[in-house]
UniProtKB/TrEMBL annotation, chain A:
UniProt keywords, alphabetically: ATP-binding, Nucleotide-binding, Transferase, Ubl conjugation pathway
Organism superkingdom: Eukaryota
Pathway: Protein modification; protein neddylation
Protein name in UniProt: E2 NEDD8-conjugating enzyme
Active-site feature positions: C98
InterPro entries, A to Z: Ub_conjugating_enzyme (IPR050113), UBC (IPR000608), UBQ-conjugating_AS (IPR023313), UBQ-conjugating_enzyme/RWD (IPR016135)
Native source organism of the sequence: Exocentrus adspersus
PROSITE patterns assigned: UBC_1 (PS00183), UBC_2 (PS50127)
Enzyme class, first EC level, given as a word: transferase
An example molecular function term from Gene Ontology annotations: NEDD8 conjugating enzyme activity
Entry keyword Cell division: no
TrEMBL record, chain B:
Known EC number: 6.2.1.64
Highest taxon listed in the record's lineage: Eukaryota
Top EC class for this record: ligase
Name of protein: NEDD8-activating enzyme E1 catalytic subunit
Family: Belongs to the ubiquitin-activating E1 family. UBA3 subfamily.
Keyword line: ATP-binding, Ligase, Nucleotide-binding, Ubl conjugation pathway
PANTHER family to which the protein is assigned, alphabetical: NEDD8-ACTIVATING ENZYME E1 CATALYTIC SUBUNIT (PTHR10953:SF6), UBIQUITIN-ACTIVATING ENZYME E1 (PTHR10953)
GO cellular component: cytoplasm; nucleus
Reaction equations catalysed: ATP + [NEDD8 protein] + [E1 NEDD8-activating enzyme]-L-cysteine = AMP + diphosphate + [E1 NEDD8-activating enzyme]-S-[NEDD8 protein]-yl-L-cysteine
GO BP terms, alphabetized: protein neddylation
Record flagged with keyword Transcription regulation: no
Annotated E2 binding domain residues: 342-430
């Protein structure tokens, strides 16, 4: 019997995740408020998304998200974290983002583009119904003016409640 | 001696009836013969992937059917919780390799059977290993592994002038179970629907909404997920990622989950549940495994002997409430490797290749993005749609294919809006040593 060889893969095949992400990235159709940054152009699985909303509560800020696409993409969604500290009912201080298509409603037919639009929507319509930051959600529900002031304060850098936010003006 | 031969005759009498006579369900090209049984017993080589719940059943079924050249591959070791259904293992085997223990058991129990174990990952072997088998049968619990072996078998396909060389097709029989549900399927790579074609069919992992976990937990699972997803990364108690097999880690998660459950007055957090949620365990059911492995082994037999038409091509099985099965033909999704002839790779520049993809009648692409793999590493050749990538790959446009390190037979991944999925284009360099007469 031919002895199996270990560890020396002669011709590495593109993984299914690689095939799919090449398509997703090539066809990214970003709204004008969003840009991507690829630290290594050869690695399409790791990148950042920068969102600078042009309307709504967050229009003066600049928010950075990190994307990590795993080997089981698109069966599993990419891991997305918010790297900018933000005063937002659906984003917590650790950068966890509460967006349904990133967890319970992810489907393989969705793409990176779907997530970009989902994240952009979070800044236009923060949702106090399903909060990660409960305090921010309560303020948004009870006093929209105070919420707007708090958002501005956080974007300019400073304390909101007991939490310090770093400046993230665009 | 005489007795032994006689019992041997009797043992195979039923298989002979199937293999040495035609029948109403025979494959159209089936020719009954006594040589088919010989083929199974002497030369047919089967690879069983996974030596767990399905794997133990498969090995037993195949060995008792007369297959003798069986290989089994599994990276796992035996755990106490396996013993209720993985019947080739005993208490003394805990901690040993599943593949090695299963092979030793079968070889001892079934005279003449030669099971060869491989205690490693499937990814540790290359094409040369997988090429040696007539049929591969999977009893896996991982979608990543299924996709990997599927990709491997697709990459072994040989096309000559666009026509699939049947000799390069290695049939894949795949079984899967989850509690009282299961499926069995037959994949003829390049000919019928494969794992990637039906990726949408796999049940998604249960993920609870993050906001529920964070603020409005109602179930014990929500409490455990909270500790796993939010508390662990925040407190990082062991300065490492959460490992579901580390008892210290599980104890920590259990303790913190109990605290949270108490706070929200939620009953039902137990150590076992914590283990189950962290490792995404769904209780395995021995009877489901037995049924699915039985179907898979039968398909292996049908393909190896041509005695019957194989399953076409996806069977679902459910014994939650009574027994239900349904078989349908999953459709193949069109993904193809196309050959692209290159006259002179020494002078052809990447930008000319891009022009070719845009202008040639058979491609007519709009803004193709090109990547490839060189020395096992992904490389982006050019992508015009993403500014940060375009800027750093622009220089490639004026390099020749040879300067870029692209070899004869290189696969180029081409993504474009004009095609529903990424195309694989294989470069075929025309050799210069044409006869000059």
């Amino acid at each position: 019997m031919e002895k199996p060889r270990r560890g020396q893969v002669t011709r590495k095949k593109a993984s299914a995740a690689q095939l799919r992400i090449t398509k997703d990235i090539n066809e990214l159709n970003l709204p004008k408020t969003c840009t991507t940054e690829f630290p290594d152009p050869d690695d399409l699985l790791t990148f950042k998304l920068v969102i600078c909303p042009d309307e709504g509560f967050y229009r003066t800020g600049r928010f950075v998200f990190s994307f990590k696409v795993g080997p089981n993409y698109p069966h599993e969604p990419p891991k997305v974290k918010c790297e900018t500290q933000v005063y937002h009912p659906n984003i917590d201080q650790q950068g966890n983002v509460c967006l349904n298509i990133l967890r319970e409603d992810w489907k393989p037919v969705l793409t990176i583009n779907s997530i970009v639009y989902g994240l952009q929507y979070l800044f236009l319509e923060p949702n106090p119904e399903d909060p990660l930051n409960k305090e921010a959600a309560e303020v948004l529900t009870n006093n929209r003016r105070l919420f707007e002031q708090n958002v501005q304060k956080a974007i300019r850098g400073g304390y909101v409640g007991g939490t310090y936010f770093e400046r993230c003006l665009k | 001696m005489g007795d032994c031969q006689e019992s041997n005759q009797k043992r195979w009498a039923h298989l002979r009836k199937v293999l040495e006579r035609p029948g109403p369900f025979s494959h159209p090209e089936f020719e009954p013969s006594s040589e088919i049984l010989d083929f199974i017993m002497t030369s047919c080589k089967i690879l069983v992937i996974g030596a767990g719940g399905l794997g133990c059943e498969l090995l037993k079924d195949l060995a008792l059917m007369g297959f003798k050249q069986i290989h089994v591959i599994d990276m796992d070791t035996i755990d106490l919780s396996n013993l209720n259904r993985q019947f080739l293992f005993r208490h003394k085997d805990i901690g040993s390799s599943k593949a090695e223990t299963a092979a030793a058991f079968i070889n001892k129990r079934i005279a003449g059977c030669q099971v060869t174990p491989h205690f490693c990952k499937i990814q540790d072997y290359d094409e040369a290993f997988y090429k040696q088998f007539h049929i591969i049968v999977c009893g896996l619990d991982s979608i990543v592994a299924r996709r990997w072996i599927n990709g491997m078998l697709v990459s072994l396909l040989n096309y000559e002038d666009g026509i699939l060389d049947q000799q390069s097709v290695i049939p894949l029989v795949d079984g899967g179970t989850e509690g009282f549900k299961g499926n069995a399927r037959v994949i003829l790579p390049g000919m019928s629907a494969c794992v990637e074609c039906t990726l949408d069919l796999y049940p998604p992992q249960v993920n609870y909404p993050l906001c529920t976990i964070a603020n409005t937990p109602r179930l014990p699972e929500h409490c455990i997920e909270y500790v796993k997803v939010i508390l662990w990364p925040k407190e990082n108690p062991f300065n490492t990622e959460l490992d579901g097999d580390d008892t210290q880690h599980i104890s920590w998660v259990y303790e913190k989950s109990m605290e949270r459950a108490l706070q929200f007055n939620i009953p039902g957090v137990t150590y076992r549940l914590v283990q189950g949620v962290v490792k995404h365990i769904i209780p395995a059911v021995a009877s489901t495994n037995a049924a699915i492995a039985g179907v898979c082994a039968t398909e292996v037999f049908k393909i190896a002997t041509s005695c019957c038409v194989p399953l076409n091509n996806y069977m679902v099985f459910n014994d939650v409430d009574g027994i239900y099965t349904y078989t349908y033909e999953a459709e193949k999704r069109r993904t193809s490797t196309q050959l692209l002839e290159i006259k002179d790779p020494d002078t052809m520049k990447l930008k000319q290749l891009l022009e070719l993809l845009s202008e040639s009648a058979s491609y007519q692409m709009k803004s193709p993005g090109l990547t490839t793999i060189i020395d096992g590493k992904n490389k982006t050749l050019y992508m015009s749609t993403i500014k940060s990538i375009e800027e750093r790959t622009r220089d490639n446009l004026n390099k020749t294919l040879v300067e870029l390190g692209l070899k004869d037979g290189q696969d180029i991944l081409v993504a474009d809006v004009t095609s529903p999925s990424t195309l694989v284009i294989k470069l075929k360099y025309q050799t210069n040593d044409v006869e000059m007469t």
